[in-house]
Amino acid sequence: EKETCKTRRVCSNLLAPWPEAENPPPPPADNRLKTTKYTALSFLPKNLFEQFHRLANVYFVFIALLNFVPAVNAFQPELALAPVLFILAVTAVKDLWEDYSRYSSDQEINHMECLVYCR
Q1: What residues does the P-type ATPase N-terminal domain cover (predicted)?
Q2: Residue 102: partners with Cβ closer than 8 Å, 6 or more residues away
Q3: Could you tell me if 111 and 33 are in contact, meaning their C-beta atoms sit under 8 angstroms apart?
Q4: Is the pLDDT of residue 47 over 60?
Q5: Does position 23 have pLDDT exceeding 70, yes or no?
Q6: Number of CB atoms found within 10 A of residue 80's CB
Q7: DSSP labels, the chain
Q8: What are the φ/ψ torsions at residue 53 (nearest 5 degrees)?
């Protein structure tokens, strides 16, 4: 009689990886909520980039810079920059306040208690 050897592999729902696995399984997905636009490092560049996408801001900065040309200037060039810088600063403060409100709301939601159901 011919003897045959058959191998059988049994899989179970254990959380431990198989010993022959080279890479451990990836960690579970993070379900934290994040709706903020900016970080501490990206606020200034991103905010200026967004503000200069508005055509009115580009126009007023162009007029203020044109005032530095001696043949064209109508009044003191430094005075022409004041309103533009004021508008840019007020808009940046408004955007910062809105983003901080989003951050606070995210933190509140992310630290809420929740029910976890097991299968």
Answers
A1: 29-78
A2: 35, 36, 37
A3: no
A4: yes
A5: no
A6: 19
A7: --------------SSPPTT-SSPPPPPPP---------TTTHHHHHHHHHTTSHHHHHHHHHHHHTTSTTT--S-HHHHHHHHHHHHHHHHHHHHHHHHHHHHHHHHHHTS-------
A8: -80, -10
